[in-house]
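Our preliminary data section would be incomplete without showing what the modeling component actually yields. Below, a chain of 95 amino acids is followed by its predicted structure, encoded as tokens that our downstream tools consume directly.
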Amino acid sequence: MSYVKYGISPQLVERIKLKLKNPATKDRVKKAVEGLTKADLQNRATIKRLMKQIAKALNEPLTSQQEEQFTDFILAQKIDPNNTFHLLKLWGMFR
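Predicted structure:
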């Protein structure tokens, strides 16, 4: 639960995980993140735009502080969507 270090509430993460179990919602989120590159995930503006799209798809209003916390967390992870190890690490974090 390394996201807690960034001030992200475990209750919020659990709510989001529950909402992602709905196939229709999951598909909307998958479409939003489709085609992202490592450079996209290291760009603060792109991440913020993505966070707003995902929050809308999940019907989960985020405060500006929560957006900043998620953005900082994502930037710190240095995620490469083409690296299987990175994807497995993320999967383990939010299982």
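The helical segments are 10-19, 23-33, 44-58, 64-77, 84-93. The longest helix spans residues 44-58. Preliminary results of this kind motivate Aim 1 of the renewal.
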